[in-house]
């Protein structure tokens, strides 16, 4: 199961306290202070790795801590520093601050629904801190506290036996929101049961669950496709229906995953009673979600051509081309008809 969102609290380690200590040695009646410094608290890093594919660890565990520094010791010994904590995230993860304070709004705003279906007064401010895109990227996200000074630092000519030390400082504490956007070259979009998963299975080694009812696909599927010695990552995006950008169906959960793609392949069931409407429904949802999506390069394909006579299928495509003023491919993801033409065109524009 793809987990693509998580909210966590991180707390870097606290610095250890300085030690109050005095030398106690035979033949040294006035040994003086010898309390050591506390160790520094451990830092917290976020590290991008290809070995992690979801944010499931952070959905399950909401609070993360690095190790505290040890307190100082006698004989001027410094306490051990706390161990750093590395939190691993997959490529495509965006790190945002999570502000729990509600945004102020006009009187009565608490009763107004936002465009995304939330409550205006409860929306949370967030700021993008980092966008992980490749293996090995590393971000210091929370700094550990400093260790406190032992009493050796406070001895003076007039005050030779200080009985106090400095405590360690707390580590940084942050609330973070993690969002995963798949890194794919091509996004396959369309209404439920239009054949997106079947096409992905046809052109790649991906094995998505496929059945003849809506919402078969409950999470994005990825597949690697080689076209003319070039490799492309395809993502089959589920759940796009009318109102998806507002939270209906599954679409608002997965629309973010096609924001990074270079090209969209728009699949339409050739047997639909209103092909133009099917096309415009998806285009409207893309526009509602993001201007970036609506302006992406797009290929349009009428799928399930194997269910019609060839002449009828070609005539249907020509009629749709006139209505939307864009080239329309005729394909069958089941038989493979027209798929190579679609992929050849894709390789030219991506």
Question: Could you explain the architecture of this structure?
Answer:
By secondary structure, the chain is an alpha/beta fold. The chain folds into two domains: 1-180, Spo0b-associated Gtp-binding Protein, Chain: A (Distorted Sandwich), CATH 2.70.210; 186-349, Rossmann fold. The chain has seven helices and 14 strands. The chain has helices at residues 56-60, 196-203, 251-254, 275-289, 291-294, 310-324, 339-349, and strands at 5-11, 44-48, 63-65, 85-89, 93-97, 128-131, 138-142, 173-180, 186-189, 221-227, 230-236, 263-269, 297-303, 328-330. The strands form three sheets. The chain has a six-stranded mixed sheet, sandwiched between helices. The radius of gyration is 29 Å and the shape is rod-shaped. The two termini are 29 Å apart. Residues 102-124 have low confidence and may be disordered.
Compose a concise summary of this entry:
The protein is of the alpha/beta class and 350 residues long.
What is this structure's SSE topology?
Blueprint: E1 5-11, E2 44-48, H1 56-60, E3 63-65, E4 85-89, E5 93-97, E6 128-131, E7 138-142, E8 173-180, E9 186-189, H2 196-203, E10 221-227, E11 230-236, H3 251-254, E12 263-269, H4 275-289, H5 291-294, E13 297-303, H6 310-324, E14 328-330, H7 339-349
Parallel strand pairs: 1-3, 2-4, 9-11, 9-12, 12-13, 13-14
Antiparallel strand pairs: 1-8, 2-7, 5-6, 5-8, 10-11
């Amino acid at each position: 199961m793809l987990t693509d969102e998580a909210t966590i609290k991180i707390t870097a380690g606290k610095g250890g306290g300085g030690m109050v200590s005095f030398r106690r040695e035979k033949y040294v009646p006035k040994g003086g202070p010898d309390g050591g410094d506390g160790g520094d608290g451990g830092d917290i890093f976020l590290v991008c790795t290809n070995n992690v594919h979801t944010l499931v660890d952070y959905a399950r565990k909401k609070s993360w801590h690095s190790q505290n520094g040890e307190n100082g010791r006698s004989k001027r010994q410094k306490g051990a520093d706390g161990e750093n904590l590395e939190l691993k995230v997959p490529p495509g993860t965006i790190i945002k601050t999570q502000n729990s304070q509600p945004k102020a709004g006009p009187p009565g705003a608490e009763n107004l629904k936002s465009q995304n279906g939330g409550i205006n007064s409860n929306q949370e401010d967030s700021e993008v801190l980092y966008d992980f895109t490749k293996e090995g990227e590393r971000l210091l996200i929370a700094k550990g506290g400093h260790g406190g000074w032992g009493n050796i630092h406070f001895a003076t000519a007039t005050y030779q036996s200080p009985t106090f030390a400095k405590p360690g400082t707390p580590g940084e504490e942050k609330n973070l929101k993690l969002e995963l956007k798949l890194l794919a070259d091509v996004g396959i979009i369309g209404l439920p049961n239009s054949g997106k998963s079947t096409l992905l299975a046809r052109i790649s080694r991906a094995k998505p669950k496929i059945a003849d009812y809506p919402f078969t696909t409950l999470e994005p599927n990825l597949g690697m496709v080689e076209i003319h010695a070039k490799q492309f990552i395809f993502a089959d995006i589920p759940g796009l229906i009318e109102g998806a950008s507002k939270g209906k169906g599954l679409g608002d959960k997965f629309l973010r995953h096609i924001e990074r793609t270079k090209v969209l392949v728009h699949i339409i069931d050739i047997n639909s009673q209103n092909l133009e409407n099917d096309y415009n429904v998806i285009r409207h949802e893309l526009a509602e979600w993001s201007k970036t999506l609506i302006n992406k390069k797009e290929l349009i394909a009428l799928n399930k051509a194997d269910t019609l006579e060839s002449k009828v299928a070609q005539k249907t495509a020509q009629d749709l081309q006139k209505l939307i003023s864009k080239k329309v491919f005729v394909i069958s993801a089941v038989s493979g008809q027209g798929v190579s033409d679609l992929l050849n065109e894709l390789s030219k524009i991506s």
